[in-house]
Amino acid sequence: MKKLSARRRHPLAAVVVLLLALAATGGLYAAFAPAGKAQADETAQSLAIDEGKKLYTVGCASCHGTGGQGTTDGPSLVGVGSAAVDFQVGTGRMPAQQPGAQVPKKPVIYTQAEIDQLAAYVASLGAGPITPTDKQVDPAGADVAKGGELFRNNCAQCHNFTGKGGALTKGKYAPDLEGVSPKHIYEAMQTGPQSMPSFPDTTMPEQEKKDIIAYIQTVNGSESASPGGLALGGLGPVSEGLFAWIFGLGALVAVAIWVAAHTAKAKKS
User: Fold this and answer.
1) pLDDT digits (tens, 9 = 90+) for 207-220
2) 196 burial type by CB count under 10 A (0-12 exposed, 13-18 middle, 19+ buried)
3) Could you tell me the pTM of the whole model?
4) How far, in Å, CA of 128 to CA of 75, rounded?
5) Phi/psi at 251 (nearest 5 deg)?
6) Would the pLDDT of 127 be above 70?
7) Which of 225, 250, 162, 254 has its CA nearest to residue 242?
8) What's the rounded Cα separation, in Å, for the pair 78 and 249?
Protein backbone atom coordinates (compact mmCIF):
# COMPACT_ATOMS: atom_id res chain seq x y z
CA MET A 1 0.00 0.00 0.00
CA LYS A 2 2.89 2.35 0.77
CA LYS A 3 4.45 1.66 -2.67
CA LEU A 4 1.08 2.34 -4.43
CA SER A 5 0.58 5.57 -2.50
CA ALA A 6 4.07 6.63 -3.44
CA ARG A 7 3.39 6.00 -7.14
CA ARG A 8 0.17 8.01 -6.93
CA ARG A 9 2.14 10.94 -5.52
CA HIS A 10 4.67 10.69 -8.35
CA PRO A 11 4.83 13.96 -10.44
CA LEU A 12 4.15 12.07 -13.70
CA ALA A 13 1.17 10.11 -12.39
CA ALA A 14 -1.37 12.70 -13.56
CA VAL A 15 0.21 12.84 -17.00
CA VAL A 16 0.08 9.05 -17.37
CA VAL A 17 -3.58 8.95 -16.31
CA LEU A 18 -4.40 11.73 -18.80
CA LEU A 19 -2.66 9.90 -21.63
CA LEU A 20 -4.48 6.68 -20.82
CA ALA A 21 -7.82 8.53 -20.78
CA LEU A 22 -7.10 10.16 -24.14
CA ALA A 23 -6.09 6.84 -25.66
CA ALA A 24 -9.26 5.19 -24.39
CA THR A 25 -11.42 8.06 -25.71
CA GLY A 26 -9.73 7.92 -29.11
CA GLY A 27 -10.21 4.18 -29.33
CA LEU A 28 -13.88 4.40 -28.46
CA TYR A 29 -14.45 7.20 -30.99
CA ALA A 30 -12.69 5.25 -33.73
CA ALA A 31 -14.82 2.24 -32.93
CA PHE A 32 -18.21 3.95 -32.82
CA ALA A 33 -17.91 7.11 -34.96
CA PRO A 34 -19.84 7.02 -38.30
CA ALA A 35 -16.67 7.31 -40.36
CA GLY A 36 -17.85 4.65 -42.78
CA LYS A 37 -20.96 6.65 -43.73
CA ALA A 38 -19.01 9.85 -44.22
CA GLN A 39 -16.48 8.05 -46.38
CA ALA A 40 -19.26 6.42 -48.39
CA ASP A 41 -20.92 9.81 -48.98
CA GLU A 42 -17.62 11.29 -50.12
CA THR A 43 -17.06 8.38 -52.50
CA ALA A 44 -20.59 8.71 -53.93
CA GLN A 45 -20.08 12.44 -54.47
CA SER A 46 -16.78 11.81 -56.22
CA LEU A 47 -18.41 9.24 -58.51
CA ALA A 48 -21.26 11.66 -59.29
CA ILE A 49 -18.74 14.35 -60.26
CA ASP A 50 -16.85 11.92 -62.51
CA GLU A 51 -20.05 10.79 -64.26
CA GLY A 52 -21.23 14.38 -64.53
CA LYS A 53 -17.98 15.38 -66.19
CA LYS A 54 -18.50 12.68 -68.84
CA LEU A 55 -22.04 13.94 -69.53
CA TYR A 56 -20.79 17.52 -69.60
CA THR A 57 -18.04 16.72 -72.09
CA VAL A 58 -20.55 15.21 -74.51
CA GLY A 59 -23.48 17.59 -74.13
CA CYS A 60 -22.20 20.93 -72.82
CA ALA A 61 -18.48 21.48 -73.45
CA SER A 62 -18.91 22.57 -77.09
CA CYS A 63 -20.63 25.78 -75.91
CA HIS A 64 -19.44 26.27 -72.33
CA GLY A 65 -15.82 25.13 -72.73
CA THR A 66 -14.05 21.99 -71.56
CA GLY A 67 -13.64 23.35 -68.04
CA GLY A 68 -16.84 25.39 -67.85
CA GLN A 69 -14.91 28.61 -68.50
CA GLY A 70 -17.33 29.69 -71.23
CA THR A 71 -16.89 30.48 -74.92
CA THR A 72 -18.35 32.89 -77.46
CA ASP A 73 -21.29 30.48 -77.75
CA GLY A 74 -22.04 30.05 -74.04
CA PRO A 75 -21.38 31.76 -70.69
CA SER A 76 -19.03 30.55 -67.98
CA LEU A 77 -20.51 28.01 -65.57
CA VAL A 78 -17.96 28.60 -62.81
CA GLY A 79 -19.91 29.61 -59.72
CA VAL A 80 -23.44 29.14 -61.11
CA GLY A 81 -24.04 26.28 -58.68
CA SER A 82 -26.07 23.11 -58.85
CA ALA A 83 -29.41 24.97 -58.66
CA ALA A 84 -28.81 26.65 -62.03
CA VAL A 85 -28.00 23.30 -63.67
CA ASP A 86 -31.04 21.61 -62.16
CA PHE A 87 -33.28 24.43 -63.42
CA GLN A 88 -31.84 24.81 -66.91
CA VAL A 89 -31.46 21.10 -67.68
CA GLY A 90 -34.51 20.03 -65.66
CA THR A 91 -36.80 22.29 -67.71
CA GLY A 92 -35.26 21.24 -71.03
CA ARG A 93 -33.82 24.68 -71.75
CA MET A 94 -30.37 23.14 -71.84
CA PRO A 95 -28.80 21.82 -73.97
CA ALA A 96 -30.01 24.60 -76.27
CA GLN A 97 -31.21 23.67 -79.74
CA GLN A 98 -30.02 26.90 -81.35
CA PRO A 99 -28.93 30.41 -80.36
CA GLY A 100 -31.60 33.05 -80.01
CA ALA A 101 -32.92 35.91 -77.95
CA GLN A 102 -34.15 33.45 -75.33
CA VAL A 103 -33.84 29.69 -74.86
CA PRO A 104 -37.35 28.19 -74.65
CA LYS A 105 -38.57 25.42 -72.40
CA LYS A 106 -38.72 22.05 -74.16
CA PRO A 107 -38.86 18.30 -73.34
CA VAL A 108 -36.14 17.13 -70.95
CA ILE A 109 -33.57 14.76 -72.49
CA TYR A 110 -31.75 13.72 -69.30
CA THR A 111 -32.97 11.62 -66.39
CA GLN A 112 -33.04 13.20 -62.93
CA ALA A 113 -30.08 11.04 -61.92
CA GLU A 114 -28.06 12.39 -64.87
CA ILE A 115 -29.13 15.96 -64.05
CA ASP A 116 -27.90 15.45 -60.48
CA GLN A 117 -24.55 14.22 -61.83
CA LEU A 118 -24.21 17.20 -64.16
CA ALA A 119 -25.11 19.51 -61.27
CA ALA A 120 -22.49 17.86 -59.05
CA TYR A 121 -19.77 18.40 -61.66
CA VAL A 122 -20.67 22.05 -62.33
CA ALA A 123 -20.90 22.71 -58.58
CA SER A 124 -17.35 21.37 -58.23
CA LEU A 125 -16.11 24.14 -60.55
CA GLY A 126 -17.02 26.85 -58.05
CA ALA A 127 -19.40 27.57 -55.18
CA GLY A 128 -22.91 28.73 -56.11
CA PRO A 129 -26.61 28.33 -55.23
CA ILE A 130 -27.38 24.77 -54.11
CA THR A 131 -30.33 22.71 -55.38
CA PRO A 132 -33.09 23.14 -52.77
CA THR A 133 -34.52 20.24 -50.81
CA ASP A 134 -38.16 19.15 -50.90
CA LYS A 135 -38.67 20.76 -47.50
CA GLN A 136 -37.35 24.11 -48.73
CA VAL A 137 -39.77 24.29 -51.65
CA ASP A 138 -42.84 22.84 -49.93
CA PRO A 139 -45.44 25.67 -49.74
CA ALA A 140 -47.58 23.90 -47.14
CA GLY A 141 -48.61 26.40 -44.49
CA ALA A 142 -47.23 29.37 -46.43
CA ASP A 143 -48.93 32.79 -46.39
CA VAL A 144 -50.69 33.13 -49.76
CA ALA A 145 -51.67 36.77 -49.15
CA LYS A 146 -48.08 37.69 -48.31
CA GLY A 147 -46.93 35.76 -51.37
CA GLY A 148 -49.34 37.74 -53.55
CA GLU A 149 -47.95 41.01 -52.20
CA LEU A 150 -44.36 39.89 -52.83
CA PHE A 151 -45.23 38.64 -56.32
CA ARG A 152 -46.95 41.88 -57.31
CA ASN A 153 -44.01 43.94 -56.03
CA ASN A 154 -41.22 41.86 -57.56
CA CYS A 155 -42.56 39.70 -60.39
CA ALA A 156 -45.85 40.99 -61.84
CA GLN A 157 -44.22 43.63 -64.05
CA CYS A 158 -42.90 40.80 -66.23
CA HIS A 159 -45.04 37.74 -65.43
CA ASN A 160 -48.28 39.75 -64.91
CA PHE A 161 -50.45 39.49 -61.80
CA THR A 162 -51.34 35.81 -62.15
CA GLY A 163 -48.09 34.53 -63.66
CA LYS A 164 -49.38 34.21 -67.22
CA GLY A 165 -46.18 35.72 -68.61
CA GLY A 166 -45.72 38.45 -71.19
CA ALA A 167 -43.50 39.97 -73.84
CA LEU A 168 -40.24 41.77 -73.02
CA THR A 169 -37.83 43.74 -75.20
CA LYS A 170 -35.58 42.42 -77.99
CA GLY A 171 -37.56 39.24 -78.60
CA LYS A 172 -37.44 38.06 -74.97
CA TYR A 173 -40.41 37.12 -72.83
CA ALA A 174 -41.43 36.17 -69.31
CA PRO A 175 -42.75 32.58 -69.41
CA ASP A 176 -46.11 31.38 -68.16
CA LEU A 177 -45.73 29.97 -64.62
CA GLU A 178 -48.74 27.66 -64.76
CA GLY A 179 -47.66 24.05 -64.20
CA VAL A 180 -44.09 24.93 -63.22
CA SER A 181 -42.90 22.80 -60.29
CA PRO A 182 -42.20 24.50 -56.93
CA LYS A 183 -38.57 23.41 -57.14
CA HIS A 184 -38.01 25.11 -60.48
CA ILE A 185 -39.77 28.30 -59.31
CA TYR A 186 -37.53 28.35 -56.24
CA GLU A 187 -34.40 27.74 -58.35
CA ALA A 188 -35.39 30.51 -60.78
CA MET A 189 -35.62 32.94 -57.88
CA GLN A 190 -32.25 31.72 -56.60
CA THR A 191 -30.35 31.92 -59.87
CA GLY A 192 -32.09 34.52 -62.05
CA PRO A 193 -32.17 32.73 -65.42
CA GLN A 194 -31.95 34.76 -68.66
CA SER A 195 -33.60 38.19 -68.18
CA MET A 196 -34.81 37.49 -64.65
CA PRO A 197 -33.01 39.08 -61.67
CA SER A 198 -31.84 36.76 -58.91
CA PHE A 199 -33.31 36.78 -55.40
CA PRO A 200 -30.81 35.03 -53.08
CA ASP A 201 -31.78 34.21 -49.51
CA THR A 202 -30.03 37.39 -48.33
CA THR A 203 -32.50 39.41 -50.43
CA MET A 204 -35.57 37.17 -50.27
CA PRO A 205 -35.53 34.63 -47.40
CA GLU A 206 -36.65 31.04 -47.84
CA GLN A 207 -40.06 31.64 -46.24
CA GLU A 208 -40.86 34.48 -48.64
CA LYS A 209 -40.01 32.21 -51.59
CA LYS A 210 -42.44 29.64 -50.19
CA ASP A 211 -45.12 32.33 -49.90
CA ILE A 212 -44.66 33.26 -53.57
CA ILE A 213 -44.83 29.61 -54.64
CA ALA A 214 -48.06 29.19 -52.65
CA TYR A 215 -49.54 32.28 -54.35
CA ILE A 216 -48.60 31.07 -57.86
CA GLN A 217 -50.13 27.66 -57.18
CA THR A 218 -53.30 29.26 -55.81
CA VAL A 219 -53.95 31.65 -58.72
CA ASN A 220 -53.19 28.94 -61.27
CA GLY A 221 -55.19 26.17 -59.58
CA SER A 222 -58.42 24.72 -60.94
CA GLU A 223 -60.38 26.36 -58.12
CA SER A 224 -59.33 29.81 -59.35
CA ALA A 225 -60.61 29.40 -62.92
CA SER A 226 -62.14 32.52 -64.43
CA PRO A 227 -65.90 32.54 -63.65
CA GLY A 228 -66.54 34.18 -67.02
CA GLY A 229 -64.82 31.37 -68.88
CA LEU A 230 -62.27 33.65 -70.59
CA ALA A 231 -59.27 34.72 -68.52
CA LEU A 232 -58.12 37.41 -71.02
CA GLY A 233 -54.51 36.90 -70.01
CA GLY A 234 -55.26 37.24 -66.32
CA LEU A 235 -54.75 41.00 -66.49
CA GLY A 236 -57.83 41.85 -64.46
CA PRO A 237 -60.49 44.57 -64.87
CA VAL A 238 -58.48 46.70 -67.32
CA SER A 239 -58.43 44.09 -70.06
CA GLU A 240 -61.97 43.00 -69.25
CA GLY A 241 -63.23 46.58 -69.48
CA LEU A 242 -61.36 47.11 -72.75
CA PHE A 243 -62.84 43.91 -74.16
CA ALA A 244 -66.35 44.98 -73.14
CA TRP A 245 -65.84 48.47 -74.55
CA ILE A 246 -64.50 47.37 -77.94
CA PHE A 247 -66.61 44.30 -78.60
CA GLY A 248 -69.68 45.18 -76.56
CA LEU A 249 -69.97 48.72 -77.87
CA GLY A 250 -69.02 47.51 -81.35
CA ALA A 251 -71.86 44.99 -81.25
CA LEU A 252 -74.33 47.70 -80.17
CA VAL A 253 -73.19 49.97 -83.01
CA ALA A 254 -73.58 47.11 -85.50
CA VAL A 255 -77.10 46.40 -84.23
CA ALA A 256 -78.01 50.09 -84.44
CA ILE A 257 -76.79 50.28 -88.06
CA TRP A 258 -78.73 47.12 -88.96
CA VAL A 259 -81.92 48.47 -87.40
CA ALA A 260 -81.50 51.82 -89.14
CA ALA A 261 -80.89 50.15 -92.52
CA HIS A 262 -83.96 47.93 -92.24
CA THR A 263 -86.10 50.82 -91.03
CA ALA A 264 -85.09 52.88 -94.07
CA LYS A 265 -85.97 49.98 -96.39
CA ALA A 266 -89.34 49.57 -94.73
CA LYS A 267 -90.14 53.27 -95.23
CA LYS A 268 -89.23 53.13 -98.97
CA SER A 269 -91.38 50.11 -99.53
Assistant:
1) 999 999 999 999 88
2) middle
3) 0.72
4) 15
5) -65, -40
6) yes
7) 250
8) 58
